[in-house]
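dude i think i finally got it to work??
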Amino acid sequence: MKISTQFDAGSVIVTDLTDPSNIRLKIRADNASEFAQWFYFRLQGAAYQNCVMHFENAAEAAYPAGWEEYQAVASYDRQNWFRVPTRYENGVLTIEHTPLSNSVYYAYFEPYSYEQHLNLLGEAQGSGLCQIDDLGSTIQGRDINLLTIGNQAASDLKIWITARQHPGETMAEWFIEGFLGRLLDPQDPTARTLLDRATFYIVPNMNPDGSVLGNLRTNAAGANLNREWLEPTVEYSPEVYYVREKMQQTGVDMFLDIHGDEAIPFVFVAGTEGVPSYNERIANLESQFKEALATASPDFQDEYGYDKDAPGQANLSMATAWVGENFKCLAYTLEMPFKDNNNLPDDDFGWNGQRSLRLGEAMLSAVLAVLPKLR
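look at this
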């Protein structure tokens, strides 16, 4: 048997590989911080053997509650991912699976590779409706790319969407793929109506370094980008620094920050009720948006989610709070589950890339519903 991780986002520590029924592993922390939860590895040479893989340090993960009722994903071809029996007992996460081939991959969630990211950019540009701009470079020299879609007229509403500030939340870029696919469809009436009135500024991957490194939450320097929005620096958080700079040039009428949540098995949003400028206009916009999204996608709900911030108590170092406060606009963090959506469970696949993509498609309808009220 052999376990390997020398590929994009690969990450695990092997402790003992002598017995397929007692494989001992550890979850590796982010390259420059202590956040640990993401894993992605290839197992070879174990076809038709009952493999029992124990993650010995699962209790030390960033979000131990994320293991409760969680099922890992596996794939033979890295295209089709399915859930495999997983349990969490006495601080140890255990995957039990009998692979049907000599090569199989296991991951925390369905990956979205850097190659897929580059292909997504190329396909978007190839539509003829999208302009790609380079805002700057990451710590490790990767490109921070912005997609601009629309007429860029001064009168256009400015809709900003960022995704994957936390690189292990790969569902966020799957969401963007779905959103772009529909927005760039010249035969889609919702997309055409939106682009008549709005210009979209989309960052499909805010954290390319962390994505390639197999990090859960941080960039190559150890920065949690969603805590950098008050005072980002080129040295520590260039990804936020350059995106924030561009936002200040264009203005923002609506902002969506796309994420995944380890513990909560639902799709939900978190708004700006805690920022100093929050008012009745924004509260009404939030209500209209949530109602429209629930109509567009039964995967969305508003019963379960984060506790709301008390007035004036928002953390302005977070993207949604900073943008909402500085631009006095509708701003939301969208969270998707790593587990499954308990309202529409799927035993074979759980929440996955395709469901994230479909939610991205549905989001256009929700944006269109609130468009007339954004200013």
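The chain has two domains: 2-107, 114-371.
im so relieved honestly
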